[in-house]
Specification:
The chain has 457 residues and is mainly alpha-helical. The protein has a domain of 65 residues: Alpha Horseshoe (Serine Threonine Protein Phosphatase 5, Tetratricopeptide repeat). The chain is built from 26 helices and no strands.
Length: 457
């Protein structure tokens, strides 16, 4: 629909009618997805008549559709100055408070709605989202059951509580809730995508694939769905099919750095390291804040014995606030290999901040302390590593080595025998046991031959 070229003198319409005409045209633009044009029309109408709460509300809805939530909040607040107890406006305001992480304001606004009308179901339904994001899942469930008493067949309630369950790792119940949503509202946006994600997380791989394909039949160009499905296929070892999906994404969005990164992953797994480096480099240049490419480039350069520039790549990766525990451990280990001990330490500390039971992080810190010749501190962290994770063989070997250097051979052998009983008699364990036996033998012989040199080893 085109904009009207209205001349008030010719039409005889008054300013109010002209403003209403702009609002009517705004509605048509909104329904057809032309949000900026809808917003322009509403701006014109409100310039003529700023005293209509409904028009401020419509402007807020339009800004929401454009994901301009802070501006939408201002519109709803203006609307509430004119209609302070309008439940629908209050509800939309509370939803946007949640979207902008203003949870206290969101909860207070929902509670105001409940005071005005305890039977207004959206105030409970949408509060599920707020409490889920606040990680107050018991309250989220309370809101779900309150909403159920008013409308037991609300598909959005089942969808929202499904998100809460999914975030807690309760995938089976999340799947049930989302299947209920799909039953009540088959056209609910991305519902098959959410079911696919939960089935994937729960290990129901065939069912996950079913729902991915169902979602892609409805939305064949949805980048997020294509990306997740590509990763899903990659995890199943179907690299050629995964590559098809990522190349399809690049046809739809040539600047999608995530797709470039995963094409690099596929090339790396196929052994084509040169092509992998090309994709990783392209992803890094396309989206400078994307975690992953620098880490993989550093790994490949070290594999190829080309350490130049690796430390800088790893330092940049650390700045991207990577929250993957295994990646941070690997970065720390690579920095130790490069002799960058001061840069390695924060990697292990970051891991321990989120998981104090990660033995490999304690072992990494022990290696740094060993480099600093702090044997007591090193031994303390090695014992921490063994205490929280009995599988870290290197921690047993390191602790045994330090005790042997202190000529405490009995304790060294106790540690090695414990490792043998827990982890088996591996060649590494046999090698170190023999080495420490030889050290003990040299120590005993030297002290028998030269008793005056008590510190000779």
């Amino acid at each position: 629909m085109t904009e009207s070229s209205y001349d008030e003198d010719d039409s005889g319409l008054n300013s109010w009618e002209w403003a209403e005409q702009q609002v009517a045209e705004a509605y048509e633009f909104y329904e057809s997805g032309r949000m900026q044009e809808a917003l322009n029309k509403l701006n014109e109408a409100l310039a003529m008549n700023p005293g209509c709460a409904a028009w401020h509300f419509n402007r807020g809805l339009t800004l929401d559709a454009m994901e301009r939530y802070e501006e939408a909040i201002a519109c709803y607040q203006q609307a509430l100055e004119l209609a302070p107890n309008d439940l629908e406006i209050l509800n939309c305001l509370a939803v946007d408070y949640t979207r902008t992480i203003q949870y206290d304001l969101a909860v207070a606004t929902f509670e105001k709605i409940e005071t005005l009308d305890p039977s207004y179901e959206p105030a409970y339904c949408n509060r599920i989202v707020t409490y889920t994001e606040m990680e107050q899942h018991e309250k989220a469930e309370q809101m779900f059951y309150l909403a159920q008493q008013i409308n037991p067949e609300c598909p959005i309630c089942f969808y929202n509580i499904g998100n809460s369950l999914f975030s807690r790792g309760n995938y089976v119940r999340a799947i049930w809730c989302w299947e209920k949503t799909a039953q009540l509202e088959p056209t609910h946006p991305q519902i098959h995508y959410r079911i696919a994600q939960a089935c994937w997380a729960d290990g129901q791989l065939n069912k996950a694939k079913e729902h991915f394909l169902c979602e892609l039949r409805k939305n064949p160009g949805h980048i997020d769905v294509l990306t997740d499905y590509g990763v899903f296929l990659l995890e199943q070892g179907q690299r050629a099919k995964a590559a098809e999906k990522f190349r399809w994404i690049l046809e739809l969005r040539p600047d999608c750095a995530v797709a470039m990164f995963y094409l690099g992953e596929i090339c790396r797994l196929d052994g084509d390291l040169c092509e992998a480096m090309t994709w990783y480099s392209q992803a890094k240049m396309t989206e400078s804040q994307l975690p992953g490419p620098r880490f993989r480039m550093a790994q490949i350069l070290l594999w190829q014995n080309q350490p130049e520039g690796v430390a800088e790549l790893l330092r940049e990766e650390i700045k991207l606030a990577c929250d993957d525990e295994q990646v941070m451990l690997s970065i720390g280990q690579m920095l130790i290999r490069l002799g960058e001990y001061n840069d390695a330490l924060p990697c292990f500390l970051r891991v321990l901040d989120s998981n104090s039971e990660q033995g490999k992080a304690y072992f990494g810190i022990s290696a740094i302390l060993m480099h600093r010749r702090d044997l007591e501190g090193c031994l303390q962290f090695l014992e921490h590593a063994i205490g929280v994770d009995v599988r870290v063989l290197s921690a047993y070997l390191g602790a045994a080595l330090i005790h042997s250097r202190q000529h405490n051979y009995q304790r060294a052998f106790q540690i090695l025998h414990k490792a043998k009983s827990l982890l088996g008699n591996s060649w590494r364990l046999r090698f170190w046991m023999a080495k420490i036996w030889m050290g003990k033998l040299r120590y005993v012989i030297s002290h028998r031959l030269f008793p005056q040199h008590q510190d000779c080893d």
